[in-house]
Amino acid sequence: MDLAVLEIFRAVAEAQSVTRAAAALNRVQSNVTTRIRQLEDELGVELFLRDGKRMKLSERGQEFLLYAEQILALTEQAKQSMHPDSPSGPLRLGTMESTAASRLPQKLARFHREHPEVELTVTTGPTGRMLDAVMERRVDCALVAQPSSLKDGRWEAEPFPPEIESLPVFTEELVLVLPEGHPVVNGPDDVSLTTLGGFAFSCSYRQIAEQWFNSGKGQPFRALKVQELGSYHGILACVTAGSCFGIVPRSVLELIGGTTNLTLHPIMQIETQLVWRAGYNTPAFKSLQGLLLAT
């Protein structure tokens, strides 16, 4: 077992295909197939379930991937630490869709100009998914919403898992968006709609919207339905059509524009946190951290 075969294994696991993994690694397919077979023989287990050309991780393969990710990440961190004044090498950033759209374009363009030797890749997804990716070493760091709970009418920040370090970098104002002409909203009971347009359950903003709506005292109890949508444009289109309400960062509304057909109601301010695994510290990451904090 060596680092090269671990990289091959990870590539096949991500692509679920020898063909696509070979293309990504610039290797011939036969070499990738042979190295995977040799790795399975060495470990004495099947790492993949083969279904035609599709390669899906077995239960043992999923377990081994966690170790492979850890080994490869620590190896890269060790290499970069030898050149503390010269940021270089891969840096994998996870981020929420809203942050990627409204906060990152100019900052990442500047980062690329100042550190062209860093191979920065960006992955988007909801907060829960990005936290999992950091803990499983599928990304090196991520921009996520601070988990929050509504207690006795007040929003309280919840801690991250103990293996996660964090640093606040942005402050977002979350705004309730309703169809044009909706009556003034002073609290959850004033919302006439009972369908929320939002992202997947692991989205912190969706969870905040659900908590806020369910904190109402109206009788009889109104069950909240959720229409899952894949983008803020989709959410705003459904709200404009009158089929649901939503919760959106004001920075995204300002970016998209066209809020004249909506009724807005501020809900809360929430921190966007940069999170990373405890102990992770490379020159590239430190440079990104400093740029995100710069005004």
Automatic annotation (TrEMBL):
Keyword terms: DNA-binding, Transcription, Transcription regulation
Domain of life: Bacteria
Record's keyword annotation contains Transcription: yes
GO molecular function, one term: transcription cis-regulatory region binding
HTH lysR-type domain span: 1-58
Family, as annotated: Belongs to the LysR transcriptional regulatory family.
Name by which UniProt lists this protein: LysR family transcriptional regulator
